[in-house]
């Protein structure tokens, strides 16, 4: 499977909670699975100074990740393929 990076803007105040953001991404992958979308949440990490949370997903295509973000209401700035 291919890897994709989802970039989400997070407000600096209050300080974002990485566990909550990661749980949202995980819930998105689970929602996608219920719809037959093959997406797996790998990890999330936060850059608080830049106000961005990055989520790494594995999926067959960018389109499947995009559909999963719609189902999960996971706001994002962009989705890009990455090589790990």
Key terms:
single chain; 84 residues; alpha+beta; four-stranded antiparallel β-sheet; 35% strand; globular
Structure description:
The structure is a single chain. This protein has 84 residues and is an alpha+beta fold. The chain has helices spanning 18-34, 62-72; strands spanning 2-9, 40-47, 52-59, 78-82. Strands 2-3-1-4 form a four-stranded antiparallel beta sheet. A hairpin with a 4-residue loop joins strand 2 and strand 3.
Number of H/I helices: 2
CA-atom Rg in angstroms: 12 Å
How many strand elements? 4
Give the class from helix and strand content and strand pairing: alpha+beta
Classify the helix fraction into a percent range: 25-40%
| Residue windows where pLDDT falls under 50 for at least 5 positions | none
Query: What string gives the helices and strands in order?
Result: EHEEHE
Beta-strand fraction estimate = 25-35%
Distance from N terminus to C terminus (CA atoms, Å) equals 11 Å
Largest sheet: 4 strands, antiparallel
Strand order of the largest sheet: 2-3-1-4
- Report the principal-axis shape: globular
Q: Can you give the mean pLDDT?
A: 90
């Amino acid at each position: 499977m291919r890897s994709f990076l989802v970039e989400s803007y997070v407000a600096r105040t209050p300080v974002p909670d990485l566990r909550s953001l990661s749980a949202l991404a995980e819930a998105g992958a689970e929602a996608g699975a219920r719809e037959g979308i093959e997406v797996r949440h790998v990890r999330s990490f936060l850059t608080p100074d830049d106000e961005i949370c990055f989520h790494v997903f594995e999926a067959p295509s960018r389109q499947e990740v995009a559909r999963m973000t719609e189902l999960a209401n996971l706001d994002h700035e962009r989705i890009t393929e990455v090589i790990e």
